[in-house]
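S1.2 Input.
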Amino acid sequence: MSEQTTRPVTGAGAALPILVKHITQEKINRYAVSSGDDNPLHTDAEFAASTRFGGTIAHGMLILAYVSELLTVAFGERWLSSGRLKSRFRGPARPGDTVTLSGRVVPCEGDRIRCEVEARNLAGELLLTAEAEVVN
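S1.3 Output.
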């Protein structure tokens, strides 16, 4: 996790902290090794060039790990013990991309906080959307 500390996030409309991650082929390769996901789409430039993506792309789960990091910064132990996440991949993250993760609290009833989260590259392309819930 980055060296950020948990920031209190309260009330509908409140912004979550922004998290910026730089995607490199080295990070993708390390994730492939640690996760056991050695799909050549992520690690073999020649193979990946022949796909519809035209080159290697980051694992979706790597981007989701960054979403979890953002939510841990925002909610700390509450996220780790009670968080729920629904996500949808919208586009690939590529080596060389800078990915910005952001979100905001949306209205929710009961004892839960609901957030909408997104990840975008520097071109503004949407890479991922997610809805997260955490016990307040």
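S1.4 Remarks. The longest helix spans residues 60-75.
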